[in-house]
Design brief:
With 364 residues, the protein is of the alpha/beta class. The protein has helices at residues 46-63, 68-84, 86-96, 101-119, 121-124, 160-171, 186-197, 212-220, 233-245, 268-280, 299-313, 332-347, and strands spanning 9-10, 12-14, 17-19, 25-31, 36-43, 128-134, 137-141, 148-152, 175-179, 205-207, 226-230, 249-253, 259-262, 292-295.
Length: 364
């Protein structure tokens, strides 16, 4: 892998400001299209973690008491700012993840939908009241913020998945700590700045970069009340087991793989369109990739031909190039794993209808 001179250092965002923190470890961030190092990412140590959690705890105590009207005013402003910065966010995603700009803008659109949903949170926060459930006994319920929650998010959707989590946590009165993937961290920092510009108090949304040391710290820290995770199934199991052992509420979403079944009476052109879009969108690095398609009976041969036509027509290039439809996978290791799977399938007798193992994009 080639490298170039690094001029950028990516910092944390703690208590309302960018900061280098106290940790002395860094890790390179690559442009997957070129293989070149684009930045060095600072990794948190225990002191950085404690500082971040303490700021979140202090912020949560006051943010949870702020009126819903003021909370939703911040959310409406944040939604406006994200919409204004779609192009900038998309460029950051493409530069570090590799997906084409249209894919990047699509994931931001999905994130905006969650922000818009969170803007209507007052209706969802209402409690219940039941009169005279038994003689002289009434029952009521009310909803309260949990406190400090942390989100641990994957590389494949560096804006969409944080926006699944943070707007809902913040709208309901919690402070949120984001630990994004080390592979494409820059979009998270821009989100943090947009939250601040929207009027969110310092400490309510923070970004803490790190690796397993930071993850373990969040899972076990006594002042972190909840964890939300999206990633591989083995890590999801580890996150769930570790955090629940330490008394935290946990969402742990593990790896998903979609399958498709195509029956003989299906619209095969429509099916082939969707199979190609699923396979090659975001270079297949998403749960919607459809790793397996089962064609039933007479559908098989014709469907393979139609998918072949669409596969060979896919425009593969750097995600920033106009008209590109598929960019690179995230790391050389990912490419090697995919090539290994295809090679093993061929050795087992699979027919190679389209073979992209030796594809080279000039200059990349």
């Amino acid at each position: 892998m080639s490298t170039t001179t690094v001029t950028t250092t990516i910092n944390h965002f703690i208590n309302g400001a960018e900061t280098a923190g106290e940790g002395d470890r860094t890790t390179p961030v690559y442009n997957p299209a070129t293989g070149q190092v684009s930045a060095e990412l600072r990794l948190a140590n225990r002191a950085d973690l404690d500082t971040t959690v303490a700021a979140a705890r202090k912020a949560a105590d006051s943010w949870g008491d702020i009126s819903l009207a003021k909370r939703t005013a911040v959310l409406f402003k944040f939604r406006e700012l994200v919409a204004e910065h779609v192009d900038e966010l998309a460029q950051l995603i493409t530069a570090e993840h590799g997906k084409v700009l249209s894919d990047a803008k699509g994931e931001i659109g999905r994130g905006l939908e969650v922000i818009e949903f969170a803007c209507g949170i007052p209706q969802l926060l209402k409690g219940d009241y039941s009169d005279q459930v038994s003689t002289g006994i009434d029952v009521f319920s009310f909803r309260e913020p949990l406190g400090v929650v942390a989100g641990i998010t994957p590389f494949n959707f560096p804006v969409m998945v944080p926006l699944w989590m943070a707007p809902m946590a913040i709208a309901t009165g919690n402070a949120f700590i984001l630990k994004p993937s080390e592979r494409d961290p820059s979009a998270s920092l821009l989100l943090a700045k947009l939250w601040k510009d929207a009027g969110l108090p310092d400490g309510v949304f923070q970004v803490l970069h790190g690796d397993k040391e930071t993850v373990d710290g969040l899972l076990t820290h006594p002042d972190v009340d909840g964890i939300s995770f999206v990633g591989s199934t083995p890590i999801a199991q580890y996150v769930h087991e570790t955090a629940t052992k330490h008394g935290k509420r946990v969402q742990a979403l593990g790896g998903a793989k979609n399958h498709a079944i195509i029956l003989p009476d299906a619209d095969l052109d429509n099916a082939a369109d969707h199979l190609a879009a699923a396979a090659f969108g975001s270079a297949g690095e998403r749960c919607m990739a459809i790793s397996v398609a089962v064609a039933v009976g007479d559908a098989a041969d014709l469907l393979v031909k139609k998918v072949e036509e669409r596969a060979t027509a896919v425009k593969v290039n750097n995600g920033t190039v106009p008209g590109a439809e598929m960019g690179p996978v995230i790391t050389p290791a990912s490419k090697e794993r995919i090539v290994k799977i295809v090679t093993e399938a061929e050795q087992a007798g699979a027919a190679m209808v389209v073979d992209g193992r030796d594809l080279v994009i000039p200059g990349h």
